[in-house]
Amino acid sequence: MGLVCSEALGERAAGIGIRYLEMARRLPAMGFEVVLVSPWRSGQRPERGCGRFEVRRFDSAPLPELLAGCDVAVTQGQLANNVLHELPHLPTAVDLYDPFLIENLTHFDTLGLDPYRNDHRTWVHQLSRGDFFLCSSPEQRAYYLGFLTALGRVNPHRYRDDPEYSGLIVEAPFGVPEPLPDYRPLLPSRAPGERRLLFGGLYDWYDPEPLLEAFASLSHPAARLLFVRQPPGAGAPQRLLADVEARSRRQGSDRIGFLEWVPFERRYDLLRDVDALAACHRPGLETDLSLRTRFVDALAVGCPVLTTEGGTVPRLLREWDAGLVVPCGDVAGLRAGLAELVAGGPEVEARARRGREHALTTFSWERSLAPLVTFLESPRVDSTKEEFAFRPETAAPADDLGFRLRRWFRRHLAGA
Q1: By the 8 A CB rule, do 143 and 154 touch?
Q2: Of all helices (H) and strands (E), which one includes residue 368?
Q3: Three-class SS of residue 190?
Q4: Secondary structure string (H, E, C) spanning 210-231
């Protein structure tokens, strides 16, 4: 089988890259010969696990050659377009874990309408031509089933044999290993009385302002709030992080810190080196469809968590009584939550313990991959897509004149 990942992999891999490396490591133990295809970063390869699967660089040969001998493919992102176009008869599972069309709506003011046009065409193509689909949560599954219905993939012939459509789209969330890697301290030793709160990477759909306001009024003098920069070469705009860094420099505060991206093998060490994970987001569709991977990792190591409402993780935190959830933009609620986490105590520890127990069970890789394994054991092309599926044209207006002028000046200034 072939795993085709659009994200450049290596030790600085982020969420999707980590997901594919973890799948490549685990599927061989479940009886599959695995080829992992990716545009690997120059000079970087995974440090461990290559003995269990074969690694091929995406640009080293035509895709049909790279997947020669594979009887099924699992793919995501833009490279899924290549798989579906160049290997139309290969049974293909399309991984929709990352709802990038919705994420990229956040960047409209910066990037204009081109990402939307590309992403919408991509989803129309992939959801009309894929044979099987992966998503992260019940929230995502309901959303994608609506999209699949609009494209004719939810149809009478499929309904007759599969009324729940469990053979079309399944939940396969990000997993956690059991046992977890041994702990190796990553951050420098603490100053006396220091308490560390981790926000993590700051993307433009997050909402740091209420948390920063709440943190500024926190009475604990040795508390620090830590953000993480993107890995080198990552392309997503980080306007909010740049704003927070600039403000921190102006204020000369040492209570706000910025870390370089942590190699993916050490992410659990970072979470064990802090006292809590605290991150909040804006209300909106991106939040509703999100499964915040950082919270899954934090729960697995027993790190206390604080977040705002919306999406899968806050729902689970409430169901499990495993963390603090406050309304979006509620500064007073965030302040109280931060104070509780900094103070620690039996109730904070009890919530973290419940979170760890639930996360290790709910998000084990074996459980997360089980629905995919069922498809891989008997891969098939969905014959109903030829009978019912269609691909509507993507419509979008031209970018307005002001944006086009700003883009022209940016390009010419960059080339000056």
Answers
A1: no
A2: helix 365-377
A3: coil
A4: HHHHHHHCCCCCCEEEEEECCC
CA distance 284 to 67: 39
pLDDT tens, position by position, 203-222 = 888 999 999 999 999 988 89
With beta carbons less than 8 A apart as the criterion, state whether 89 and 382 touch. Answer: no
Name residues whose C-beta falls within 8 Å of residue 111's C-beta, 6 or more positions apart in sequence: 104, 237
Whether 50 has a pLDDT exceeding 80, the answer reads no
What is the average pLDDT across 5-27?
A: 87
Q: Of 231, 220, 285, nearest to 259 (Cα)?
A: 231
Q: Which residue has the tokens 């729960």?
A: 299
User: Angle at CA 261, nearest 5°, toward 116 and 75?
Assistant: 45
CA 375 to chain centre: 23
Indicate the length of the chain as a whole number: 416
Q: What is the DSSP letter of 10?
A: S
The first and second tokens of residue 190, run together, are 């603490």
Alpha-carbon span 233 to 41, nearest angstrom: 9
Cite the DSSP H helix spans in 89-151. Answer: 100-105, 108-111, 114-129, 138-150
Per the CB < 8 A criterion, the answer to whether 145 and 233 are in contact is no
Task: Report d(CA 77, CA 82) in Å as an integer.
Answer: 10
**Please, are residues 131 and 401 in contact by the beta-carbon 8 Å criterion?**
no
Q: Which has the minimum average pLDDT: 278-282, 302-306, 390-394, 406-410?
A: 406-410
pLDDT digits (tens, 9 = 90+) for 230-280: 866 666 677 888 888 888 888 877 899 999 988 888 999 999 999 999 999
Residue recorded with tokens 């093998």:
265
Is residue 9 within 8 A of residue 41, CB to CB? The reply is yes
Phi, psi of 81, rounded to the nearest 5 degrees: -60, -45
Are 131 and 93 in contact by the 8 Å Cβ rule? The answer is: yes
What's the pTM?
Answer: 0.92
Tell me if 106 sits within 8 A of 205, measured CB to CB. yes
- The beta-strand segments (E) located in 368-413 are none
Fill in the amino acid letter for 370.
Answer: A
Task: Compute and round to an integer the Cα radius of gyration of the chain.
Answer: 22
Task: Please write down the long-range contacts of 289-293, taking CB distance under 8 Å and 24 or more positions apart.
Answer: 289/99, 289/102, 289/137, 289/139, 289/140, 289/143, 291/97, 291/136, 291/137, 291/140, 291/173, 291/174, 293/15, 293/18, 293/174
Domains (range + CATH), the chain:
2-175+367-406 (3.40.50.2000), 195-363 (3.40.50.2000)
